[in-house]
Amino acid sequence: MIIVVCGVSGVGKTTTGMLLSEALGIPFFDADEFHPASNIEKMSKGVALSDTDRRPWLETLARQLAAWQQEGGAVLACSALKESYRSILGSHCTESITWIILLASEALLTERLAARKDHFFNQNLLASQLEALELPDYGWTFDVKSSPHEIVGTILERLRGK
Q: Using an 8 Å Cβ cutoff, are 102 and 75 in contact?
């Protein structure tokens, strides 16, 4: 089972993903850990990544997802903002990915990003992420007005009903 928790920065992908991972007993990974240094440097300076910048990162993650699938599954927190990115991410998996899309108001996201410490993402990039976001017509979408525990509870119920 591969689950990708996606959305813009500050939406709670890591928190939700870690809780889900723990509940399911499968490993959690954060896609940010797989960015090359050049991408991190750009984002730290407030420069939005291009699709060209993202491509090698997405391809690395696609191979990892396939490997994790073979090892019994994983939960990945990854922005996966565009349909083309999600297509690359799933390109090596032999089973369907469960997509969890987290949404929040721009005001809440701005508040959360301002409170972050020691994270490379420059909060000035939020607007570019919101502009790039392409909501899929598949997966499970949640407004993060609900707590991460409530969201994970609903996900677990849906997974049991699958």
A: no
Burial 84-105 (b: 16+ CB within 10 A, else e): ebbebbbeebeeebbbbbbbbe
What ranges make up the beta strands (E) of the chain? 2-6, 28-30, 74-77, 98-103, 140-143
Give the single-character DSSP code of 116. -
3 state SS of 101: strand
Q: Residue 105: its pLDDT value, please?
A: 79
Nearest to 48 by CA among 126, 107, 110: 126
CATH for 39? 3.40.50.300
Count of domains for the chain: 1
Q: What is the pTM of this model?
A: 0.88
Domain that holds residue 24: 2-161
